[in-house]
Amino acid sequence: MTLFALLATTTAVIAFQQRAAAQAQRDSAVFNQLSGEADRLHGTDVSLAAQLDLVAHRMKPADTKIYTDLVGTENFPLSTALVAHTDAVHSVAFSPDGHTLASAGADHSIRLWNVSDPRHAPASNLIANTPSAVNAVAYSPDGRSLADAGADGTLRLWDVADRTHAVPVGEPLRLTDAVTSVAFSPDGHTLAAADADHTIRLWNIADLAHPAPLGQPLTGHTGAVEAVAFSPDGRTLASASVDQTVRLWDIADPARATALGAPLTGHTNTTTAVAFSRDGRTLATASRDTTIRLWDVADPAHPAPLGQPLTGHTSTVESIVFSPDGQLLAAGSADTTVRLWDVADPAHPTPITPVDQPLAGHSSTVFAVAFSPDSHTLASASADRTIRLWDVPRTLLTTHHGAVESVAFNPRGHTLATASADHTIQLWDVADPTRPTRIGQPLTGHTDAVLLTVFSPDGRILASASADHTIRLWNVADPGHPAPIGQPLSGHTDAVSSVAFSPDGHTLASASADRTIRLWNVADPAHAAPLGQPLTGHTDVVESVAFSPDGHLLASASDDATVRLWNVADPTHPTALGAPLTGHTSSVFAVAFSPDGHTLASASNDATIRLWNTTNPTHPTPVGQPIVGHTNTVLSVAFSPDGGTLATGSLDHTARLWALDPGPADHRICASTADALNLPKWQQYVSDQMAFDPPCGTVAVPH
Q1: Is residue 491 packed enough to be buried (19+ CB in 10 Å), middle (13-18) or exposed (0-12)?
Q2: What confidence tens digit (pLDDT) does each residue in 387-426 have?
Q3: Helix axes 46-59, 2-41, angle to 10 degrees
Q4: Which end of the chain is more exposed for a tag (fewer CB within 10 A), N or C?
Q5: What is the pTM of this model?
Q6: What structural domains does the chain harbor?
C-alpha cells in the first residue's frame, strides 16, 4: 500500500508539474501575443493597444518593455467610443458648461450625452427625430438653446435647458437648399447659417421663438457654402466654400453685413471648415486638398497667411477647431484620423503627436471635432456611427516661442524650470503635475538660446547655460521674484550646452561645444572660480553633464552618440569609468540620474528617451525599449525629486511629463478607454481559452 501511495503521490506531483508547465507555456505564449498585438495596434487604435499593454503588465509586472510602453501612454490622447447612432455622425458640440455633448447625423436623430463625470460611461438621450439627416448642431452661448442644420433645407431651434427633454422653439426656418453649417454669435443675438445655394443667412434671435431675417442673404461665393464661424468679438464672420475660397464678412451691424476685402485663396480644392482662435487674431481653414492653413486676421480687412500649410492628413480635412485655452488646433479627416497641433505660436505650429501616429480609432471619415470648454477633452464624430471622447493630456507645457531646450525640477519645492531657444527661462508651479501653471514672466539676460537650466541642491540657485558661451546664476529662493547673481561665468570657447551642481552644491560642472567639460567652485556663488583643467575624452560636442546623487559619478552625453561615466569623487582628479554607453542612433543631448542613483535617463536627436541601470556604474545596462512620443529631437530630461515622474523637453516645442510608476498610466488608460477591450476583442487579441478578465473591469456599452 505504501508503494502504491508513493506511486500515486509521485504521479499526482508529476501531473501537477506538467499542468503548471503547460499553463506557464500557455501564459508565455499569450503574453508574447499580447505584446505583439499591442505593438501592431499602436498605429491604428492606441486606446485598445493601451489596454492590451495593461493586461500584459499584469501578467508580467517586471517586463521592462511593457513598462516603458505604459509610461509612453502618459502623453498620448486616449479615447472611449460612444455608441448609439445608427448611421454616420455628422456633428458634435459641447454645452458651454461642458456637462453635455450634443450629436447629430445621417440617422435623422439628435442626441444629448451626459459627459459631466469622466469616471462613468456617458449616457445619451434621444431628444429629436428630424425629417432629414442633420448636418450640424450648435449650442447658444448660454447653453439653453440648440440649433440644428438640416439636409432638407430647414434650420430648427430647441430649448435644451433640460437635457433629458428638448422642446422645439418656434417654427423651422426654411432655406432654399441643404443647410451645411450653423453658428451662434458670441452674444447669442445672431444666428448664421450656410446654405448649399451659395449664400449665408443671418437672423436676429433676441426673441428665440420669433427669429427675424437680417438683411439680404450674403452672396459672393460661387459654390455651396460649407461652413461659417463667428470671431470671438462677434464683429467678423468667416465662411468656407466649394469654390475653394474663404470669405470674411463685417457683421458689426449684422443687418448691413458687407464683405471684407478679397476672398482668401491658396487652397486647391473645396474649403470645408473655418475656425477662429480664442483671441480672434488667427483663422484656420481646412480643405479637400488635405491641408490646413493659418491666417493672421488681426486686421480682418487685410488678412495674411501664416507660415506654410499644415500637412499630415492624407485625405479631406473635414473639420477643425481651436482649443478654448488657445494652445491646440485639432483636425478631423476623411483618412479616419484626428491630428493635433500646438498653436501657442501660430506662426510656428508644431504637431503634438508623431506624424506617423495620429489619433487613430475611428474606422471611417471623421466629420467633426469639438473641444470641451476646459480643453481637456476632444470629441470626434465619424461615419463609422461612433463618437470618440479623447482625453487630451494636461501635461503639455506650451508657452515658449522656440524649442524647449531644458527642463529642471526644484529639489526643495514644486517648481519646474524650462529653458528655450527663445533666450528665456520660464518657471512653473507643478504642485499638481496634471495642472501645471506658469509663475511670473520669463527670465531674460542671455543673448542666445538657453540650452540648459539646473537648480542647486538647496533649491535657492538656478544655473543656466547658453549658446552665448556663458553660464548665469540666478537667485530663485522666491520663485516669483528671481534675480541674477554676480557676473556671467566665462571660459569655454564655444556654446555652453550643459551645467550641473554636485550634491553638496559646492561644485558646478559645465559641458561645451568645445568638446570639454569644466568644473567650477561655486561655494560662494557670487565669486565662482574654475577648478583644474578641462576634462577631455568625447570626440564631438559635449551636450550634457549630470552628477549622481552621491556626487561620486558624473555622466556626460555627446554628439558622438555616446554617454560616458566619470569618477569625480575627487573633482580635481576625475577618471573615466568603463566604455561609452551606446544605443542611441544620433546625438545624445541630455542625461539625468534618478534620485536613488540607480537609473540614468538619456535624451537624443533620434526623438527617444532611454533608461539605463547604473547600479553597477562600471557595467551599466539598458532598461527596456526607448520611450517614444515626442515628434522631434528630445533636448532635455529630468527626474522629479521623488523619482516618480520624468520630464522631457523637445524641439517639437513641448515639454512632457511621464509617470514612471505604471499606476497612473493604469488609472488613465482605464478612465479614458472604457470598453476598448470588450469580450469579442478579448477573444481576438488575448485568448479564447482564458476567462474574460479585462484590466479595467467590465464596462457596459454606453447608450
Answers
A1: middle
A2: 999 988 776 666 777 788 888 889 887 899 999 988 999 9
A3: 160
A4: N
A5: 0.72
A6: 2-61+665-686 (no CATH), 78-391 (2.130.10.10), 404-649 (2.130.10.10)
